[in-house]
Amino acid sequence: MTSRKIFSCSLTASVLAFATLGAAWARQNQPPAPPPRPVLIQPTAAQQRFRQAVQQSQVRDQLRKSEVEHQLRQEAIERTRRPASSSSTANDAQVDKSEQALDQLYRAQQRDRVQRYNDALLPQPVPQVSEGSKPARSSSSGGH
Fold first, then answer.
1. How far is CA 11 from CA 2, 24, 83, 129, in A?
2. Quick one: residue 20, left, alpha or beta (phi over 0 = left, psi -120 to 50 = alpha)?
3. How many H-runs (helices) and E-runs (strands) does the chain carry?
4. Separation of first and last alpha carbons in the chain
């Protein structure tokens, strides 16, 4: 009777082992679940207006800060020019060149800030995804 019990236990253990292996094999052979589709969140008109107002405020603050910095640089240039003696024409020419370079830099920065301000006024495009389209794959693997 003990040999029958041993046989029964080993038969049960073998069946369980095969069942476990079969379940694991079945899970491995299933195709992977597709990735979840991205959900596009359409901003409301109020959210877009708020974002634009924040961007405009940031650009206005940058413009004001830039103007103050420019005024401080101009005052510093004028202070360096005042104590110079009449024989320092080379120093005056160098100061003039640096002043012109700073003015050009200032104007370029201001144009950039004004352009960003104007860009903030435009509504931002929301990408449209059609039901049947798949994202394009880029093959930038270095010439394979």
1. 14, 20, 106, 57
2. alpha
3. 3, 0
4. 69
Q: How confident is the model at residue 27 (pLDDT cuts 50, 70, 90)?
A: low
Q: Residues with Cβ < 8 Å from 124, sequence gap 6 or more?
A: 48, 51
pLDDT beyond 60 at 125: yes
Measure the CA–CA gap between 142 and 120, rounded to whole angstroms. 37
Degrees to nearest 5, angle at CA 88 with 86 and 94: 135
Q: For 36-79, what is each residue's pLDDT tens digit? A: 888 888 888 888 889 888 988 888 898 888 889 888 888 887 87
C-beta of residue 51 within 8 angstroms of C-beta of residue 43 = yes
User: Cα–Cα distances in Å, from 27 out to 23, 31, 36, 80?
Assistant: 6, 9, 20, 80
pTM: predicted TM-score of the whole model, two decimal places: 0.39
Cα three-residue angle 101-102-104, rounded to 5 degrees? 65
Q: Which helix (H) or strand (E) holds 12?
A: helix 2-28
Model pLDDT, residue 139:
47
Helices (H), 29-44: none
